[in-house]
Amino acid sequence: MFEKNRRAADIHTWMLLIVVCVAFLAAPLAALCGDAAVDDATGTISAIERRPLERQREKENQKAELEWTDAESAFLVNDFDTARKTYMAIVRQYATTDYAMRSLARIGDVYRAEKAFPQAIEFYRNVVGNYGKLERQQQERLKDDLTRVRYLIGATYYEQKNYRLAFGELRAFIQDFPDSKYANVAYFLIGQGHLANNNFRAALGAFESVGTAQGVEEHSAKTVISPGDTLYIQVRDPDMRTAAVGQMVKIAIRTTSGDMETLLLKPKGIGSDLFVGNIKTRLGSPEPTALLENLWSVEVDAELVRALRTAAEVEKRVDELTAQRESTEKEMQRITKDDSLTG
Q: Helix, strand, or coil here: 282?
């Protein structure tokens, strides 16, 4: 009897040990299962499951890149129908790649090249709308594309001669992207729009802002620029007194290849000792630019600014005389009314 009880106790002990071991071994499994449940709840993917997805995404990206190259080639030779169809195929087949967003923007470029401005703006706005739905990393990769599209919305309205909408879009762009290389171009288009509307004072203000956007400091810090880029120049001289009256300063710049150009720097503000300006670069050996300077030079630019100032002063004087005339007419009406009442 005692022996039987002892055997039963031993069996019970071994069963307890087995249960403990199973529980101990099951703990990591439960933790893994718990993690998997959390992953399912949060929608995240485990590292093991992520690898094949990343490989698939990389394959899609490579295919999209090949299609993109074909579309770009068609666009460059003005085969707009082929380019548009190829870009659209990229958007439909490779929607998760960066090339899908870039293709949407390019479709807008195609319509803009065809002067189909409403369609171009529609696709540009689609890019802006979809950008906010992207993951943060993808947004960072496509930030420059978004900047270009935001500028092009305003520029397209300008080409459409819809200056009211162009001004709003371009001003919003300058406010949101003050460091962009397009900011100064946006100021220029605003000035051109006001000039087309014969609003000389507003045109003058916009033209004088060209080259003064915050992006000047960023660009002027470059030591190397590419041909076709705009070279931004700033000079700080506390001894200069011309800024007090808004007078521009003429400087000469010389390159190591022997090219020399002259341009006018504008004070960044009344009383400022910082003078800024810019000049367009191009690829090629230094050449005499007398013909170009006769057509458009710093002197011509200064003359235009003076002419705009004169026009603005005339416009202001006309407004003052108009207001004075209206005031005189009102006074004459009042006197006539008083005379009729006293008579």
A: coil
Please answer whether residues 232 and 280 qualify as being in contact, where contact means their C-beta atoms are separated by less than 8 angstroms: no
CA end-to-end span of the chain, whole Å?
A: 144
Q: What is the pTM of this model?
A: 0.55
Q: Can you give the C-alpha Rg of the chain in angstroms?
A: 34
Handedness of CA 332, 333, 336, 338 (dihedral sign): negative
**332 in a domain, yes or no?**
no
For residue 195 the two structure tokens come to 């000039």
Helix (H, G, I), strand (E, B) or coil at 160: coil
| Single-letter amino acid code for the residue at 50 | R
pLDDT tens sequence across 112-147: 999 999 999 999 999 999 998 998 999 999 999 999
Residues 6+ apart with CB under 8 A from 210: 184, 187, 188, 191, 278
Domain range for 300 is 215-283+290-312
